[in-house]
Amino acid sequence: MRMGSGTFAACCIAIEVLGVALFLRGFFPAPVRSSSGTEHQAEPPAPEPAAGASSNWTKLPPPLFSKVVIMLIDGLRDDFVFGSKGVKFMPYTTYVVEKGASHSFVAEAKPPTVTMPRIKALMTGSLPGFVDVIRNLNSPSVREDNLLFYLLLLILLAAHVTVCTSAESSCYFCSLPWLAAGGVMALISALLSAVLAALTKPFVDSRRLRTDPGPCPSRWSDVGLLAVLGTVGHALSLGASSFVEEEHQTWYFLVTTLGLALCHEAYSTCFLGGDAEPPGCHRTERGLDSMVPVQGGNPGCDVLELGQTHRRPASLDGPWGRDRWLVLASPWLTLACCRLLRALNPTGVQGAHRPGLGHWLASSDHRAELSVLAALSLLVIFALVQSRCSWASKVALGLGLLGVYCYRAATGSVLFPWQQDNKDISRGVVEARFVYVFVLGILFMGTKDWLKSQVTAAASKVRTRGLWETHSGFILLAALLSRPHNLPVLVSCLAIQAVMAKFIWKPLRHDAVEVTVMHYWFGQAFFYFQGNSNNMATVDVSAGFVGLDTYVAIPAALLTLFATYMGPVLWASHLLNFLSSEAGSGSALSRACFCYALVCSLPASAYIILVTSLRYHLFIWSVFSPKLLYEGTHLLVTAAICVLFTAVDQTHTKP
Question: pTM of the entire structure?
Fold first, then answer.
């Protein structure tokens, strides 16, 4: 049985996930923890001193105080205590400090600068491991010597950081046996060979199918060339700390350049007719399997070209039709939306401190404006999504979006028209669970239609509707987990998807590979449009508690993961729907899965090599390590996406 390219890509990405997990396990330092008094008995006291000798350990000095109270205030900055702001915000503490009744100092914190590792460092005196940032959400009990067990014996052990950056030890890869190292190199060589074979296959097949000595012209399109150069350039840019800190600028530049390239292609197609094509050439629509004959009378050019630039569709040949203007305006609309979203959530090291439109909307003084914007955004979401849903899903979607607004009103983020004060503010647990019911209902109906398509006559229509309803369930969940001022980000995402699908990808006949790369790029850009960055502090952990009374590990982790990567997930889900709705979509899905896995694996693999070579860099823990965690998590999300693509592709190829 021959393995398809999509299945092969899913298997490769799964192996890569395991490899990255193994690399993370060996890369991050593992602190040596001292034994706890609860696990081991105290050592016996030293023997009595000899006669005539003096000892000072048998009699403890009297305590100065009977009790000690240790108070920790999470997120308290030093400028809130000292200086002019301290007099305003904490007058008594400032008075005690200035009087000299207390000793004050500012400690320099080492990364990761999140709550649990910092408390752990204060209580134990040891350096927490960087991987403790993951345990911040569900911290286990500290089982090493700490102030809570031993208040001013203060017998603290210094943490022994076992990393490959030590000058006396070899790195992880150098410590591998020669046989294992050879196996790794053989696997990498095999993967590279498979990638090169897949990339060169269209050109080899096109040459084999030529029957005319005068072949039709074939070259890379502008968008295809930009996709290759942009993907490789982004992977190489991760070797610089500034590019890692400001990676959002790279993706903003790439999607802006992509929009300009699409403008050029649209104008060339509508006004100049694109690149000339010999009359009578038969070609396939790129990414699909159906043959599309070109009008003309040259029977001698029966050539299957997969990489050539196509002529404009017949619908664009009319004199200044409406479709032509919409095709010309679509890239500019996309560029305008992206520019507005950049001003909504400034991110990165250089822009995080700048007040954006999102900060203005989230302030308590502008709740009325935020309420109107949230209500309009939810209405637009319903209008963009409901057209391809069944009636049951439409009702569930409408009630779910209404529940989203009720949830945000219950938490005090937005206002009801009859709500005048904050007396009715709650955690919104009931409202959020109300939305979860409709999310699960829509996902269930979509999965049911998708499975039903395997046994019904109208399989294509039912399958397409089922996949779209599954996509609608993801959109409803994203609306619930998004902060109110980020709902325009979701609206822009859906609007760009609708415009690009109707007026760019279909009329200009982009192939499956180009459409996949564009979806990936926009997914990455929307990851940063949400306000995310490569800093762990921008992760919105509050999404993991939506609808929960108490902390539950697995649901909280899944909700936080989806809320963080909703941009890439929604664009991947739309890619699946777009390709599944086209004729001959089975092979397109397989190629799209392979391409999506490739463009995600390339930066991750390059970054692991770069991080290994930069392990002595000054910013290895503050800049490169958080990005490494993001890359590993993104690779896990990509593996799940590839599994979904493979599952849908298998149902398409079933007889």
Answer: 0.73
